[in-house]
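Design review, sub-item: ligand-bound model
Attendees: FS, YL, KQ
YL presented the inputs for the MTE complex:
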Amino acid sequence: MGFFDRNRQDLIDKGYDPSRLPPGQYLTDRFPVLHVGDVPTYAPGQWSLTITGLVEREVTLGLDELKALPSVDLTFDIHCVTKWSKFDTTWTGVLVRDLFEMAGVRSGATHVMEHAEFGYTTNVPLADITTDQAIIAYAFEGEEIEPIHGGPVRVVIPHLYFWKSAKWVRRLELRAGDAPGFWEQNGYNMYGDPFKEQRYWGE
Ligand SMILES: Nc1nc2c(c(=O)[nH]1)N[C@H]1C(S)=C(S)[C@@H](COP(=O)(O)O)O[C@H]1N2
Ligand SMILES: [Mo]
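KQ shared the predicted structure:
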């Protein structure tokens, strides 16, 4: 039995429902760190998030303003395209759709480009970032998100591969039509459903 089959058997032995693990993935207890480039550091008050593009009014929120909004605590399984999955991660944050409601989505908006610090981008359909699970997260397991995992604030969209969840998010741009983000220009799938193994172009 190879590594992946053994890992899947371990998970069954531990009592997990194996259907939670997408095809081609392995379960880990660790929390790997994955990103291109540097980890930004922010002076107090320096970070902000702006909602732009096809909106009635641009909305910009600082960290304290974000934290003052109604929040949710949600527990998700997360799946990285490099094949690790982690179960039962708990995040606190604000539903993206609540932020979009503040900005007022204009008709014709179909997709969102997430813009993070240092130019990382990733594209998602508007419907996928406005579910009751898609959040702008500022805490992980009840603590501030560590800078290496995207702190102070990152996107979490658990039903897509984790590259669709931008760390250090600064701007959400509502768009008419889809366009490839950073990894999507480099061969990664435009949508990225882990249960359909949509890792790369044409999958
Ligand atoms: N800004 C930014 N966000 C990013 C990335 C990145 O390179 N830059 N990498 C993505 C990828 S590929 C993954 S798997 C997750 C990793 O998050 P983690 O380091 O907290 O595990 O962040 C995603 N968000
Ligand atoms: Mo990833």
